[in-house]
Amino acid sequence: MAGDIRIMGICGTYGVDSANGRMLELVFDHCRKLGAECTIWDNAEHPLPLVGAEGCWDDENVKAFQEMATSSDAFVLSSPEYHGTMSGVMKNSLDWLYSKHTSGKPFSLMCTLGGQASNNTLNHMRIAARWIHGWVTPEQVAVPHIKEAFDDDGNLLDEKIVERVEGMAKSLVDIAEYLKSR
Ligand SMILES: Cc1cc2nc3c(=O)[nH]c(=O)nc-3n(C[C@H](O)[C@H](O)[C@H](O)COP(=O)(O)O)c2cc1C
Q: Between 3.40.50.300, 3.40.50.360, 3.90.470.10, 3.30.110.40, what CATH number should domain 6-181 receive?
């Protein structure tokens, strides 16, 4: 069991009451069953200023965000696709992370789409995670046609996506344990 693995979820929508907040909860259900401790950063509760905005370098939320990243062993990013790429909230969140917070730690990636599945957002987040020296799991999840993706209880309807979420969670926890033990 991954008792000492801490995983930080970063949501590309402003609050976690969204499809991407739900996707993070679903993947964290599996990670918790494997023994990991999981927390989602909620931008609605603790908004991060835009990088470069007045006062941003001394912002308390930024400090807390970076401290949470430093004390985490792994990350899950989940972003809506906006105009063929990750949301501004996700990009700005990643812009607050540097390799000193994330180097040598694994990332898993998810995205949701109003339309058909695409790898654009996943690929763009993969590039950003690489830039902050993260190891990105090969397993990743894209959820197309997001308005029809969940049942009334918030569970995913497509069994293949359910399996992908579970497989990604296992891979992330396994890799986090391996990288932490080195
Ligand atoms: C500004 C904007 C741009 C969008 N661009 C795309 C897009 O390029 N492709 C797509 O499939 N859906 C697009 N959508 C739909 C979102 O991806 C969809 O609403 C989102 O995945 C829902 O997730 P959420 O509930 O976490 O916000 C866009 C939505 C907005 C608001």
A: 3.40.50.360
